[in-house]
């Protein structure tokens, strides 16, 4: 038996006097390592083609091309 002035550090570190059995088993049980998840592949964005129509030649006196000129549609009965 120890004197009152002495401190039993081994008994304190084991914790058998101070903790119940379930807590002791959890403290000293081997810990399982988590499995690493495989990294996901990054989605690659492809080049998106943009449809562009050729404007064609300009009309007389430098006016806009004919595709931009208003078209008159005549409705007949």
UniProtKB/TrEMBL annotation:
It comes from the Eukaryota. The lineage of its organism: Eukaryota, Metazoa, Spiralia, Gnathifera, Rotifera. Residues 30-77 are annotated as: Disordered. Residues 30-45 have a biased composition (Basic residues). This is Uncharacterized protein.
